[in-house]
Design a protein that fits this description.
single chain; about 65% helix; about 625 residues; about 5% strand
């Protein structure tokens, strides 16, 4: 029996749904034994769970339905990916943008700056977050004291942990907690402006009619700039300040798949971004370099040897420059730091990924975890469907660009698999969400172009429609625009960055810092083995070892190195918790048993204060 189009599409859809049900039921069946050769302690280790399980389950959950979709599309609709056509597709000319898009861009820039200058710097209380503030305050204090980077601090995120606050202090001329925190909001401002450029690039490659592109740009731009929010610590939204490098990479990367006079320049720029990003942000940089590597292989396959040579040469030149700037010793320390983080972070910091569907209502992150997987899956289906489609292309860029885009989205979800809490799940849904929006918006406007009979074929009509949409956008976001804050921005900003650090401390913390400062006045460094990582900064002294966040030394080899450094430096005092404090249900001294045993064997009680124990060398 011959099926009609509806029956064919329903059969494909039903096949995919069945495959999703199968992978969901098999989710818990994929269970590798824990492999913890490094001796790391963390929540997943405590329950005997191998973090690699989540990655394998994720690949299976996304991979099987996509294979079913591909197979059923081939069997029913006779659709398949033409590898030769996909790899050797020719570049297409891109029509120039109409001045209306420039007008809209200016309006969005005004919106962006209105929101930026509306930021409220007056809080009912200013509270120091030792865990997050400490991530950058103590590393930058170590740098100021030693003029060293990775050799002075074991960095959790990358070089940005110390370079960002240092840059803020240099620009603002103030070394304070407030000044360091403000850099985040400037980075988010830059991120929003970069999103406007990305919206332009995505609009440019769409094959919508020029007048329709005006509305398309307005909608896409508003969505992109709304995917980030100003925050003084962690943004906890879809786009984080670390995503600046992803956005910049995509802006340049798109240019390589269209007919462009600046293709070689953008090839060089993506190599620059790849180099800078991995130095500043370990995870983001790895993802970008991963895509760059596969793009290099793609160039070799299609025999664009000059382009591949340019990529390789640029990449090597930028790394030679980087190594010369930071020094070879720092480069080696960077490699060791990066390697250690890659192989131990999931064991130390990981949380088990909730079972899709069945965890909804039982796990507080179950709904978000399920939605993240489904967004990734639908993004893959949209892209696969486009790659196998025999219909007229809806984008002027080469189709393979979207294969790279999905690959980037696929690997970036590793952040959610590594630590499956609400902030990481939300932030890891940024690219799959963007892909879904991008395709849905294109198909919707294509449908409207075909179905709606609009006699007024004029830019004025769509520009007017875009302005109506902007009014709607403004009405939804007017809470972010505060005239009083805008008027007093300069005064509020200067007041915030010049706040005394003591303002961020409670009375007990002030007493602790005052006491510790008094007994360690003759010491050149601070040894703090607690979760309160900002203490060395508050005392304006470096940490005695590069392990300023002692809980990160959980792997046995790092603990041994930590102990050797303590033996060499022999700090007079060490700050401890009076009772063990837990993170993810695991105490800090349980995480670093070897270090704890060494300290307790070589130090004795000196004094206690507000739940802290001061130890002194025996």
């Amino acid at each position: 029996m011959k099926l009609n189009n509806f029956q064919k599409n329903f059969t494909i859809f039903f096949s995919v749904i069945i495959s999703i049900l199968i992978v969901t039921l098999l989710w818990d069946k994929i269970n590798l034994p824990l492999n913890n050769a490094s001796g790391t302690k963390g929540f997943l280790v405590s329950i005997g769970y191998n973090p690699a399980n989540d990655t394998i389950r994720y690949i299976f959950f996304i991979g099987l339905p996509l294979l079913v979709f591909l197979f059923s599309s081939h069997s029913i609709n006779k659709k398949t990916i033409g590898i030769n056509d996909l790899f050797f597709e020719k570049d297409e000319e891109i029509p120039g943008a109409h001045k209306s898009i420039l007008i809209l861009s200016v309006i969005f820039i005004i919106f962006i700056f209105l929101e930026f200058f509306s930021i409220n710097f007056n809080f009912p209380s200013y509270r120091l977050d030792h865990f997050h503030d400490g991530n950058y305050l103590t590393p930058v204090q170590n740098y100021i004291s030693t003029k060293k980077l990775w050799t002075s601090s074991y960095l959790t995120h990358g070089g940005s942990d110390l370079l960002y606050p240092l840059l803020a202090w240099k620009i603002l001329g103030v070394e304070s907690i407030g000044a360091a925190r403000t850099l985040n909001i400037f980075l988010i401002l830059f991120l929003k402006l970069a999103c406007l450029l990305l919206a332009y690039q995505l609009t440019k490659i769409s094959k919508l009619k020029n007048e329709t592109k005006i509305l398309y740009f307005a909608i896409l731009c508003s969505i992109l700039i709304s995917m980030s929010k100003y925050a003084f610590l962690e943004a906890n939204y879809y786009f984080h300040h670390r995503d600046i490098y992803i956005i910049l990479f995509l802006i340049c990367f798109i240019e390589l798949f269209i007919k462009s006079d600046f293709k070689y320049l953008f090839s060089i720029l993506i190599c620059f971004i790849a180099t800078i990003s991995v130095l500043l942000h370990i995870d983001t940089g790895i993802y970008i370099n991963f895509i760059l590597f596969f793009y290099f292989l793609y160039l070799l396959i299609i025999k664009k040897y000059f382009d591949s040579l340019l990529i390789l040469t640029s990449f090597l030149i930028f790394w030679i420059i980087a190594i010369n700037l930071i020094g070879f010793e720092e480069f080696v320390a960077f490699l060791e730091n990066t390697k250690s983080m890659i192989f131990s972070m999931d064991l130390m910091h990981g949380l088990k990924y909730p079972v899709p569907f069945f965890s909804i209502g039982e796990d507080p992150n179950g709904t978000r975890a399920t939605r993240g997987l489904l967004l990734q899956l639908t993004a893959g289906i949209f892209i696969l469907n486009y790659l196998i489609s025999k219909n007229q292309k809806i984008f002027t860029s080469k189709k393979i660009l979207f294969a790279f885009l999905f690959l980037l989205s696929l690997i970036m979800y590793k952040n959610a698999l590594g630590r499956s809490d609400a902030p990481h799940l939300r932030a890891s849904s940024d690219l799959p969400l963007l892909i879904n929006i991008f395709f849905i918006l294109n198909y919707l406007l294509i449908y409207l172009e075909k179905k709606l009979i609009i006699k007024i074929n004029s830019y004025k009509f769509f520009l007017s429609l875009s302005f109506i949409y902007l009014l709607f956008y403004y009405s939804l976001n007017n809470i972010n625009y505060n005239l009083n804050n805008i008027k007093n921005y300069k005064e509020n900003f200067n007041s915030f960055i010049n706040l005394e650090d003591n303002i961020f401390l409670n009375e007990k913390e002030k007493e602790l810092i005052e006491y510790y400062s008094r007994i360690s006045k003759n010491d050149s460094c601070i040894e703090n083995i607690t979760f309160d990582d900002a203490i060395p900064y508050l005392l304006k002294k470096p940490s005695c070892t590069k392990y300023w966040a002692s809980w990160l030394t959980s792997p046995i080899d790092l603990q041994k190195d930590y102990i050797n450094r303590l033996k060499k430096i022999q700090p007079k005092y060490i700050l401890y918790f009076l009772a063990d404090h837990e993170f993810d249900g695991i105490g800090i001294y349980e995480r670093i048993e070897l270090v704890n045993s060494y300290v307790l064997a070589n130090y004795k009680k000196y004094d206690t204060l507000h739940g802290y124990l001061f130890l002194v060398k025996k």
